[in-house]
Amino acid sequence: ARDYRDRIVTLVERSFPAMGTQVRLLASPGAPLDAARELVEDLEARLSRFDPDSEISRLNADLRGAVPASAPLRDAVKAALAGAAATGGLADPTLLGAVVAAGYARSLVGRPRADLAAGAPSPAADWRQVRVDDAAGTVVRPPGVQLDLGGSAKGFAADRAAALLAPYGPCAADLGGDVRVYGAHEVLVANPLTGVPAATLPLRDEAVATSGIDKRLWWDAGGRPAHHLLDPATGRPAWTGVL
Questions:
Q1: How far apart are the first and last CA of the chain?
Q2: How does 147-157 read in b/e, with b if 16+ C-beta sit within 10 Å?
Q3: Which residue, of 52, 68, 97, 180, is most buried by count of CB atoms within 10 Å of its CB?
Q4: Tell me, what's the pLDDT at 107?
């Protein structure tokens, strides 16, 4: 990486599995890599829908409209809602029921193919009925509306981990393609079919998220190909022409 004076800096790396992916933390010497790892693992414990004891799972199971939530969970929900607002509902954190119905109850791997179609926001737009009340320490949503923070949780964790490392110099947090950097870096994006870099993205104090349909794929109960990126309008995997 390069620092603010464009001097080359050799970074220390820490890799570990978390949030259903491989996490890579790159930091300048002396940075608190152990603390950054603990932060990511704490967020995984709070935000994983695959853990019935996680805070997000307990929130989803709660029948109350306003559910007490920790500050990290409230902040993660706010980040997800900001993503929904920025994309006009294409990134919708209220599609848990749909993604489970499509077959993504646990991580699966396959190689299906299908025809391509466009995606659109959900007409119900349940995400607009979710809000965070920091004064009361609650997440408010209609009972029955369940949250799946998914990729936004990884981006949220990358933001927080990188911010913890940044005071010590150039750094990066990569959570399965959700990347936040400080200093100047080059991010290589792999071709999902060959593994060969297909693009190089120069970043300085920025973030980038990549998500593909090359890993979390399966055949659903009807024998149709499925993956984890849904079309909110249909609740079915989106075939948009982008791999």
A1: 29
A2: bbbbbbbbbbb
A3: 180
A4: 42
The three-class DSSP label of residue 45 is helix
Q: What is the CA radius of gyration of the chain?
A: 19
d(Cα 48, Cα 46) in Å, to the nearest integer?
6
Written as six digits, the tokens of 193 are 């079919």
11 DSSP assignment: P
Check residue 54 and report its DSSP letter.
S
Q: What is the pLDDT of residues 43-96, one digit of tens each?
A: 999 999 889 999 999 999 999 999 999 999 999 999 999 999 998 888 888 887
Burial label, 143 (beta-carbon count in 10 A; 0-12, 13-18, 19+)? exposed
Q: SS3 of 89, please? A: coil
Identify residue 210 by its one-letter amino acid code: T
Q: How far apart are CA 171 and CA 147, in angstroms?
A: 31
Integer Cα distance of 157 and 189 in angstroms? 20
Q: Which residue has the tokens 């749909």?
A: 98
**What is the predicted pLDDT for the residue at 4?**
57
Per-residue pLDDT tens for 202-215? 999 999 988 777 77
Distances in Å between the Cα of 114 and the Cα atoms of 5, 32, 191, 195, 224 are: 49, 45, 19, 21, 8
Q: Assign 31 to helix, strand or coil.
A: coil
The conformation of residue 221, written as its DSSP 8-state character, comes to T
Nearest to 44 by CA among 216, 135, 176, 235: 176
* 159, β-bridge pairs: none
Mean of pLDDT values over 140-151: 88
